[in-house]
Sequence to fold (950 residues):
Amino acid sequence: MENKQFVNEIADINTDFAQWYTDVVIKTDMVDYGPVKGTMVIKPYGYAVWENIQQYMNKEFKKRGVKNAYFPMLIPESFLKKEAEHVEGFAPEVAVVTHAGGEELSEKLIIRPTSETIICDMYSKWINSYRDLPMAMNQWCNVLRWEKTTRPFLRTSEFLWQEGHTVQASPAEAEADTQEMLKVYSDCLKNLLAIPTLTGRKTENEKFAGAVATYGMEAIMKDGKCLQAGTTHDLGQNFAKASNIKFLNKEGVLEYGYSTSWGVSTRLIGALVMVHGDERGLRMPPNVAPIQAVIIPIASKKEGVLEKCEEVRTLLESADLRIELDNSNNTPGWKFNEYEMKGVPLRLEIGPRDIENGVATAVRRDTHEKVQLSLDNIVEEVKNLLANIQENMYKQAVENFNASLVETDDFDTMVKEINDKKVALCYHCGDSACEKEIKDKTTIKTRVIHSYDNNHKCIYCEKPSKYRVYFGKQY
Amino acid sequence: MENKQFVNEIADINTDFAQWYTDVVIKTDMVDYGPVKGTMVIKPYGYAVWENIQQYMNKEFKKRGVKNAYFPMLIPESFLKKEAEHVEGFAPEVAVVTHAGGEELSEKLIIRPTSETIICDMYSKWINSYRDLPMAMNQWCNVLRWEKTTRPFLRTSEFLWQEGHTVQASPAEAEADTQEMLKVYSDCLKNLLAIPTLTGRKTENEKFAGAVATYGMEAIMKDGKCLQAGTTHDLGQNFAKASNIKFLNKEGVLEYGYSTSWGVSTRLIGALVMVHGDERGLRMPPNVAPIQAVIIPIASKKEGVLEKCEEVRTLLESADLRIELDNSNNTPGWKFNEYEMKGVPLRLEIGPRDIENGVATAVRRDTHEKVQLSLDNIVEEVKNLLANIQENMYKQAVENFNASLVETDDFDTMVKEINDKKVALCYHCGDSACEKEIKDKTTIKTRVIHSYDNNHKCIYCEKPSKYRVYFGKQY
Fold:
């Protein structure tokens, strides 16, 4: 009964996925709309997910010698114009500061939509010799891109991200860096968020404004649409030339550096919701869950119940688990619904009978299975169960992912499949005009290149193929 | 010799403290100037200090139920105007976005100089009943205040900070919160940064624009000037009324909430430099040092030296110590200078003779003492030594702090002492006009109130005293 009542609060995931998404992120207190159109407030339950992502990434960055820093948010308008493609890509989306300190500024300042131009400007001062390379810094910050159509986490004017920027001594090292960071990202999605991804190079049409090559990581949502979940860019010498980053190489010759950049954003939170969520709300993989297990006292006024709950909480927390004990006046049934909707991976019910039997009753969010855990060995049993849930959720996500992929050589079939919530792997000629024609006609875009292949025909124009590429709809 | 050469790179701390500060923060790679006037780039060595502060604070916030969140950076201009004193205080310093997405905006947006107005606006939607209180969130973010005269870390247009915002159910709870957070801040400065502080209420003239009461934490720099290192504000019902934050209290009556806010910023990094630095550069207290110990191989090409250094590094790192091993081609002498300037608390030299004797030669940054540490017990010995350095640096800082404080009842003496690098504790009538006259005449301002006292005479106007208050020059 209680579940029924509860489920009614969020739209049906099968019939209205878009409304389901909005209901879930708002009603679980992950996010709210900000007062300025297109902005969001990331509430504690959403922000905690971001903090867990930050923690994971920071470790990976550190292992690879990438150091955190912070660069100014305001960029002189002239900087943006230094790289021709870059300004074309970003100028329409920027917010402009014209006045400050009560006066009109002599040069307009833009709020960073991304920081290549300002970071490369600083790098040009700091880099002199090959001994200074690679230079690799990352910043966690806010960025702003004025968007017409926005949705919490997925597309907002302001969002949070990390942007890594490196300068390397050779094209090979720059290229290797973009591959390495793409791997870091896809490993994060796999290990932390339990999300499988497609990774590969983006086509010329879809690359970053100013890059030589862009690599993308695509997750597939439950409605079959792709979500670009991270990108890495080989910028060649484009930004180095624009910002005059020169270094004395080992042969004593002055040379432009080879730069890269790469980023993931709070979009990942949206991906998490749309890959794992179900008709009851969120489902959080334990590794990233703000609350890994919630303890719910049953008949909490009975002697010893609350004490036992507190004891278990303390034990689990001292094992570095993220635990909540809900001792509020709400009924157990209300609490069951609440934490199901919030996607807490494990619920531990502890009542007089459980205590008598020396157990806690555990209910998994992923399978709804009920298991008795021994209170004597509660830390290990909870840890094992959480590991098992993490593994199972990844397995479920991989199944959905695989079920979303189709291969076809026929254009009409491709369109039909994609309209039927699929992602299609097809041969393509690699011609930008042909790709654009497909997009204009169907709103279907390429996602990432699967492999290079000259032995087939383009799915659309039937000229010789250049590569196999994933086509799909996107967020 | 090498030290001599090195010291010449930074200005003399005794004769030109201001230039010494700039030299130190720039040459140790903590910070650089950004391309827009008044902005700074926080480089990895400075940012790591900030990350250590964040880590400490986050634990303290969590213990007190304060949750991290993120609110939008852009605030509608109308929001700022909701609280009369607040707009008067901040309007002259704000940066204004007038255009975005290629169009002129219908309402101008300001970049947050602080977030009371936008956070209270959101709180008004989320708070309904006393059950929702206290509501306590914190955000780590950038803020912008257009400043005419700027210095890295101390005063810049954009800076990083944390701002905590709470709504409480009663004036007593709001007041208690401001006291509690002030204690958290001063404990952080004591335990992490080894900095003693003066804490207390600010006078009416010096309080936050829109607050009922502001409490401040003041650190004293080596040149005798005060640095406001953190503030907490009891906002009473001012912002609750402006933003319509109402809650149903336990008696079932609708009432305005009582809000507070509190913050510390990247200024703290400046305080760290100016409290502990010496003629050779930075001195980092171990608890906050980005590098707690640097290992320098001596005769690194001799067999076994580098291996031993690596082994020691691994041991120390696995004990969660922050260690650097400098195996570059620079001479040991060059390295000694470099890490002294960077203020690394402990240097470990390991050469063939040390290895033969089963020791590492440790040199303390705080006392320049040399000690032999047993390699067999290196983790514990390094840990003990670092704890000892932390304690000693706090002791040294307290000595300087105490030596800076004077008490006087004579105005001319006060001015003379303060001009002679002191902070003076004096009686004052509490009259804003009197306080302002002192400021206009001498540039000397009140720092924090020491205690309330009606039994003496004002140091300036000789009317009956209201309180004893610290006077000093400030950053």
Observations:
- Chain A has three domains: 2-276, 293-383, 405-472.
